[in-house]
Amino acid sequence: MYEQMVTARYYEERLQEEYLVGKQPAFDISAGPIPGELHLAAGHESSGAGVCIHLRDDDTVTAPHRPHHIAIAKGVDLKKMTAEIFGRETGLCRGKGGHMHLFDPDVNFACSGIIAQGCPPAVGAAMAAKKRNTDSVAVAFLGEGAIDQGGFLESLNLAAVQDLPVVFVIEDNDWAISMPKDRVTDVEDGSRRAWGFDMPGERVDSDDAVAVYEAAEKAIMRARDGNGPSLIEVQVHRRMGHFMGDAEAYRPEADIERAKQRDSIERLADDLRAHGVEDDELDEIRERAHERVDEAIAWAKEQPEPDPSTAYENVFTNPPAQTATDGGANTSDASSDGDEGGDR
Ligand SMILES: Cc1ncc(C[n+]2csc(CCOP(=O)(O)OP(=O)(O)O)c2C)c(N)n1
Ligand SMILES: [Mg+2]
């Protein structure tokens, strides 16, 4: 878990550096090697690592718009994921998805920029696992800002009524962009949403990866043993802005400070030391993680950019008339074009 967490933290530190290249002095979001939005998950690492350590490749994970720590812990190929974030041809989605739309069928991982969107597909994956008589499970991660979405609540209901092997994990970082949690819900403990669906709900109230590990173990074993769904809420902290470039004028300074002080990585390191792990060993893990990240980023930056002529392959839209290759008469469904990679 420590290795996954330090990998995720360092990965994002490196992405942050790469992201800022070419974007300043006036912040130009479309410039540089990583154009578009970038939502960093520094401060969320305990949830990804503490949950995914219990999962196998054949288990499904869906994640929201802040996905890197979860993708890394689920075992998504770091090189292909990085190439995707840099918009390269060899990326997980041929550079068309970017950082919010990673999709890796090898380890059954997907994420989306639409909040709570991962819940129905996770329930679908759980239903498929049950119908196939396997003991695979599905886990849907979402932010506390998404717990009033219909997709989430309907997913809880279907999962409960059909006893499906799915676990919902709410990452509560107290903020939904600039909106504090207490302005959108009177329910302080999001795991209580489970009560209305007669399923177990548990909140991990601290940045303690070991406590997440224990709560997730119970929920995932329950799902794997055929005993139905559970809901977990994990308190995490957003160490950064909502996205890169967010000046956070809405956020009290003390809240930013608090987020930085409650570091689940430091806490886990302290726990490990208390259990006899030497500093040398922790250094070694960190070095190995840094090497892996640096290698993935260097590899991704050398990858080719996609050929512009492939822009409308494998997407659910047609080219605008003036750019259509058939002279503007294209009325076909572009999603059926381009057989290569069509399974993605
Ligand atoms: C259905 C939908 N509505 C609105 C948005 C815009 N949006 C993007 S992130 C976000 C807040 C998400 O907050 P939370 O779920 O707590 O996740 P966090 O960013 O804190 O990790 C919103 C409203 C969206 N992506 N999808
Ligand atoms: Mg949030």
Summarize this structure as a short list of keywords or feature phrases.
single chain; 344 residues; alpha/beta; Rossmann fold; 2 domains; seven-stranded mixed beta sheet; two-stranded antiparallel ribbon; 37% helix; globular; disordered C terminus; binds thiamine diphosphate; binds magnesium ion
Average predicted local confidence, pLDDT: 93
Write down the secondary-structure element order. Answer: HHEHHEEHEHEEEEHEHHH
CATH superfamily of the largest domain: Thiamin diphosphate (ThDP)-binding fold, Pyr/PP domains
Q: Helicity range of the residues?
A: 25-40%
Strand order of the largest sheet: 2-3-1-4-5-9-8
Major sheet: 7 strands, mixed
**Count of discrete alpha- or pi-helical segments spanning 4 or more residues:** 10
CATH class of the largest domain: Alpha Beta
Low-confidence stretches: 327-344
Q: Report the principal-axis shape.
A: globular
What ligands does this structure carry? thiamine diphosphate, magnesium ion
* Overall tally of structural domains: 2
Total strands: 9
Structural class: alpha/beta
Cofactor: thiamine diphosphate
GO biological process, one term: pyruvate decarboxylation to acetyl-CoA
GO molecular function: pyruvate dehydrogenase (acetyl-transferring) activity
Biased composition (Polar residues): 311-331
